[in-house]
Every structure is written in structure tokens, then in C-alpha cells.
Amino acid sequence: MYQRSLPTSANRFGLLHSSVPDVIVRTNVSRSRLDLLQKGPDAALSFLRQQIAHLRSLGQIRPVAQLLGEQVRVSLIKGQRNQAVELLQSLEDFVRDHGSERGGRAELPAIAALARARVLISEDSQAALQALKTVGDHAARFQRHRLAVLVDLLSAGVLQDLDRAEESLECLRRAVEAGQRLGLIRTLLDEGALSEKLLGRLAQTPLEDPVRQYVDQLIDKLTGPCAQAQATTPARRKASTGQEPQLTPREREILSLVAQAMSSKRIAHTLDITLDTVKWNLRNIYAKLGVSSRYDAMVWARNHKLID
Predict the structure, then answer these.
(1) What's the pLDDT score for residue 7?
(2) What fold is seen in the domain 233-303?
(3) What is the dihedral of CA 172, 70, 115, 102, to 10 degrees?
(4) Looking only at Cα atoms, what is the longest distance across the chain?
(5) 156: buried, middle or exposed (CB in 10 Å: 19+, 13-18, 0-12)?
(6) Structure pTM?
(7) Where would I find the beta strands (DSSP E) of the chain?
(8) Residue range 109-146, pLDDT digits in tens
(9) What are the structural domain ranges in the chain?
(10) How many other C-beta atoms are found inside a 10 Å radius of the C-beta of residue 209?
(11) I want to staple 2 with a disulfide (CB 3.0 to 4.6 A). Which of 30, 135, 198, 225 is the partner?
């Protein structure tokens, strides 16, 4: 998994000058997601901005589009929807200027459609599904199997939000069966709270090995001790040495709403952020405070006079 590759990859970005686009994309996305896990979204966004500027200077069109899409994803995780919308507009303008029906650039509209779907998921489910269909059609046409798994996973989440439970489960089963067959791990884990919610639901249905083992493995990675270690931030590590953990303004805001007995969905609506962003922040709060539940986090915050 890419978490183990930082010492190697960090010293080899010069090799990207002569690398093929797929290698450039995988290396940069892996590094940015590693930064997201270990240092937080600001570090990931900073790295992406740097690499996008560099790749633009090299004329690497498809990698630039992919990293712009990744910027949209990280901005949504951070809860900065307005920034994500601005980045999406930049990506769509870029695709309009450089798109082509041939070669690697034929993927550009699908890259933009995936980013658009992520932005729309929290506000227009039908439009998000339409954007995901565009990505799915591209994945089928060009046999992009990993991308097809991601589309099915995201579609399952949207369909569940629309209370179309059977269709959601069908998409989820297709994603998981293909993921197991292809040996995909990070494709599902990187969707974080969404994967945890959907896989937890799937685990309650009849499954046969090896799919059952695969689902259990993914859930364990999402919820077990390793997941908590990945979510641990520098502030949390300082807390373990006796210093006070430092919550971000957004985390304090969410914690104050938790203290008002608000559900995650209501918090998302109140703050105008996505449900996944709320869940991602809650996981960070739990990791920083060393607790495992909303109640424990609320008690800790009150004891430390962070909330009334």
C-alpha cells in the first residue's frame, strides 16, 4: 500500500520528467493521499498545487486534469465546498480547452464528470448519478476496471441517499465483487466514511467466500487499530505525550453541534458541508482526543471548557 512508499517516492520525483502519464498520475495521487492521511488536507492541497504547476510547465495534460480532480476531492473532504466548485470550474475549462476524442485526452471529460459528481452528491443526487453514468460509460468503453469499481461504489452511496435500496445494493455488490477479483484495496478504502457505511450494510447480507473475506478485510482496515493509527494527526501524537490536542476551528464547530445532540446529517446541513466531511472530521476528533464515541468526545470537550 502507498502508505509504506513515502521514503522511496519522495526522493524520486525527478524521474517523473520522463515517465508516462499513468505513472505520473499514480505517483502523485498516492503521495497526496499519503499526505492527507498523515498530515491533513492542507498538506495534500499544497502538494497538489505544486505538482499541477510543475506538470503544466511540462505540458502533461492528462496528469494535470487528474490532479485538478484530486484537488476537488480533497477540498470537499476539508469541507471547503466553494473552493471545490471553483476548482471544478477550472477543471472543466481545462478539459474544454484540451479535450480530444483520441488518445489519452479522451479521458478528460470523464475526469471532469467524476469531479462534478463528487461536488453534486450532497445537493443534486440525480445530476450526480448522471455524471457518474458518463464516467461509467467511459470506464466500460476503455476497460478502466478500477474506475468502474469506483463509479459503482459512489453510485451505491447516491442511490442509498435516494432510498433506492435495492439498486444501491446491486451497485455495491458489483463494486465489491469486481474489487475482490481485481485485488483492489485503496480504491475502496480511500472513500473513507462512505465505504465504511456501505460495507457495513453489505456485511449484513448473505455473502460467500472469497467475497465475504474481502469485505471483512476492508471493514477491518477501515475500523480497526490500523485505521485509527492512520487517522492520528500530529496534534494527536502530541496529546499522547501530555500536551493538549489542538482541534481545528471546523472540528470545534462540529463538536459544539454534537453537544447539541445534532445528527451527522443535520450538522452537514447546518454547516453546508457534505455528510462524509462531517464523518471525516468526527474521526479526526476522536483520534485527537483518544476517544471512540460522540458522548466521550462531548464529555472531554466540556471538561476542558471547549464547549458549554
Answers:
(1) 46
(2) Arc Repressor Mutant, subunit A (1.10.10)
(3) -100
(4) 61
(5) buried
(6) 0.71
(7) none
(8) 999 999 999 999 988 999 999 999 999 999 999 999 99
(9) 1-118, 144-231, 233-303
(10) 9
(11) 30
